[in-house]
Amino acid sequence: SYKVCVGMDDYSDKDKLCLSVKHDFPHGKYNKTTFTNDVMLLKLSTRVIFNKNVKPIRLADMYDPVPKTCLVSGWGVTSNDNNWMSYKLMEVNVMLVDNDLCDEENVYCSTGEKGPGEGDSGGPLVCEDGKAYGVISAKASTLQLYKYTKIPDKMEWIDELMKLN
Fold it and tell me: What is the full DSSP assignment across 51-97?
């Protein structure tokens, strides 16, 4: 079972709202070995009420240009020295790169020492225009290469699920 908490940037935040998930929709062609189609939609048990701490985000589509600078955020581990999840929402700027492996797998990629940590999977890749372009997916273990599922490539699947559910 899943729970989704909104309106918080610190785990102890008093204003957060946690909702149960009514149904999960993993992508039908998800491959847990290669992390292909690493995306899931969650239908919440109740609607989220927007306020100063909770706002919707626009999703990029295939007509949006490929961005270069983005921001990733998550609650994952903050260093290789510990296995504890962060109690504070962390964020880091990343630069998307062209890479043969990423082109072959049809994912966005960033490189470098700074990027998403273990436990950040599923977090957003938000770029220059404030739209969500991707979902944090995986890290290539031998490289400092971070992979993100492309939201524009999944919009048809997202739209179809939204209509049916």
Answer: -SS----PBP-TTSPPPSEEEEEESS-SSTT--PPPSB-EEEEEEB-
